[in-house]
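Final report, closing paragraph on structural work. Over the funding period we assembled a curated collection of sequence-structure pairs, and we close with a single example.
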Amino acid sequence: MTHPTDFPRDPARLALPEHLRTALWLAELGLPVLPLRAGKQPYGNCRACRNSECGGRPHMLAAGPCVCPAPCHAWGAATTDPDALTSAAWAGAWRQAQAVAYHPGGAGLTVVDLDNADAVAWARQNLPTTKTVATTRGEHWVYRGAMRSVNGVRPGVDLKSTMSYAQWRGPGTGTMAPLPDVVRALAEKQPSVVRPKPCTVTVTAPAGGGECRHRSPAYLERGITMAEQRIKEARDSIHRNVYRTFLAVLSVHGGCGCLTDAHIKRLFTASQERGESLRNCEDAWTNARTTLGM
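Its predicted structure, as stored:
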């Protein structure tokens, strides 16, 4: 595999930000790419896809590039189109970008993200050898073939493929192997240990009268429990399921002021255990409130 510096020294390309040059190189290799800001986080939604109008479309839930005028929706913004990557709408993001990410599923790949030494040791004993990329705390094992993404399939092990993104950390070493059944099986098993997820609630409960209009705390408790269960039992389209669940909860309890930060935290925790990031939870909650005019 070549490197961005191996391309002919086109003055126009050399004048571009370093991360954008890397992104263009990866795009030419067929990897849909996007910029990351500090903390390995994608850039937030643009106005054009408010209420998940972009990320909620069926074609977006499968793969496909984002059609909004600015980077948004994380993996959905990933593209191989050089015109989109170098457009004015993306310019600010690339000037501020701290890293480059790619959508593995969009390139027909799966990344087994091994987050620590114990996870790496487990992989070496249980998974077929494949292309390996060193990360800050562990390794990425990259296989040829796409599948659904699931976090926490084992302690320190995440699966990143469709509807997910992975930070680009270099071409790695070794030969990429076909996606094995043992990795696919990990997505179907309930993990024996779920890696704790950060859940600092930064959204607020809707203001209201402070008392549930149903006059029954048990009704609210049953509603939150059912919402948690709905999120946990979703078989696919997790992002869309989380948004719709938040929308359902808010449509019933959002106008009376009975929801508290503790209730929101329970919903966020259930969502994050299914692989949603804190940022996606916040966006889904905000979008649901906007849809209901709150």
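Residues 4-8, 55-64, 190-200 have pLDDT under 50 and may be disordered. The longest strand covers residues 109-114. We thank the funder for supporting this effort.
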